[in-house]
Amino acid sequence: MGAALPIGEAVPADGALPDETSIGPATPFSVYLHVPFCRVRCGYCDFNTYTSSELRGARQDEYADTLLREVALARNVLAAKGPLRPASTVFFGGGTPTLLPPGDLARMLAGVRDAFGIEAGAEVTVEANPDTVTDATAAELAASGVTRLSIGMQSAVPHVLAALDRTHEPANVRTAVDAARGAGLDVSVDLIYGAPGESLADWRSSVETALTLEPDHVSAYALIIEEGTKLERQIRRGEVPAPDDDLQADMYELADELLGATGFEWYEVSNWARGAEHRSRHNLAYWRGHDWWGFGPGAHSHVSGVRFWNVKHPAAYAQRLASGETPAAGRERTDAAARALEGVLLGTRIREGYPVSELLGEGRHAVARLIADGLIDGAEALHGRIVLTLRGRLLADAVVRALTPGL
Fold first, then answer.
1. Pairwise CA distance, residues 44 & 241, whole Å
2. Domain ranges for the chain
3. Helical residues (DSSP H) of 80-219, grouped into ranges
4. CATH fold of the domain at 29-287
5. Radical SAM core domain spans which residues (predicted)?
6. Dihedral (Cα; 62, 68, 69, 72), 10-degree rounding
């Protein structure tokens, strides 16, 4: 059910932002809609999700109406600070958003449109489990304004899926992709590498299978062992091996090679797109530090340097909103040092890079050494941008530490 929430300052019952908060009207605004329901809990997952037996006082069939109460609250909060900005991207994440009827997702999207507006040509993404997507589902989502389906493939190899506790039928990935294509939706597939027992040959098979689906976008994430998960307990007890860092590096390099050979370009450390027009604009909004409001239990938001987060359990979330109170559990205001560190951390992850001119003090002096070590692109640095090389992507955290001494 996810890691513990951070400790922050209290949020007023009406959710009002701090008096000194000033929202830049030109800053893009994005919306994240969290759907916290899953049929089963995957052993590696620490997201804020709940199976039916864990809901205790919350109902899936009432969820859309509950979330729309938060949308109304957010509209009031933001309207108090000036003109409302239409959403440039909307993302339904989870959990498994497609466990809800498409009509519920459509009502939630319509509520966002009514409250804030949605820009013409906005990217609207729904994450989906392959087993939950039919032609009718995809068609109804497209009719509601969804433009993109992000399909949780994870692997094409049965024993790897079993190690991850993924229960979908591998053949249904193609069924879901075909349904999305038939509805005119862009398609992204998500992969995970480094599962217990997964070989380099297994990983090659998964990437090559994903490429046969001809998606527009591929995300490939290294398996991270999160504290408190089933998988972490299995590793601690010696039942399964921990991920091998060297093997995961080999898997990353193989993915980059195979994807690059078929026309995909990396634009963020874990993401590749078939042309700039297919990059995830919603995820780029996070990496570029735009404003967003996250709706739903445990969702996090960022508005003009103020970060706030909701209570985690769906029942507590619903109870707060039913009583007319914000579901926000706490908030924090970032200081200059935190903003500088975050800017480097996020900016170096994307292909457009981070401006050398914005590095502080000793960070600038590290650039020459990082070029010599083959971690950042020398030609790009001469043009004023910090852009990671392939080796630098594998050692991104070390690059950030070198560029932010003392932060």
1. 13
2. 29-287, 335-407
3. 102-116, 135-144, 158-163, 171-182, 200-212
4. TIM Barrel (3.20.20)
5. 23-265
6. -170
Task: Give the separation between CA 333 and CA 306, rounded to whole angstroms.
Answer: 5
Helices (H) and strands (E) in the chain, counts: 16, 14
Asked whether 349 and 268 are in contact (CB, 8 A), the reply is yes
Kindly report, residue by residue over 322-372, the tens digit of the pLDDT. Answer: 999 999 999 999 888 999 999 999 999 999 999 999 998 889 999 999 999
Taking the CA atoms of 85, 86, 92 and 98 in sequence, report the sign of the dihedral they define.
positive
Query: What average pLDDT score do residues 218-227 get?
Result: 93
Say how far apart CA 99 and CA 97 lie, in whole Å.
Answer: 5
What is the length of the chain?
A: 407
Q: Where are the alpha helices (DSSP H) in 134-290?
A: 135-144, 158-163, 171-182, 200-212, 230-236, 245-261, 281-287
* Lookup: tokens for 176: 């879901």
> Is it true that 29-287 and 335-407 share their CATH fold?
no
Which pair of tokens denotes residue 247? 């093997």
CA angle 221, 222, 227 (to 5 degrees): 110
Calculate Rg over the CA atoms of the chain. Answer: 21
What is the sign, positive or negative, of the torsion defined by CA atoms of 31, 302, 270, 159? negative
Write the CATH number of the domain with boundaries 335-407. Answer: 1.10.10
366-401 per-position pLDDT tens digit: 999 999 999 999 999 999 999 999 999 999 999 999
**Can you give the pTM of this predicted structure?**
0.95
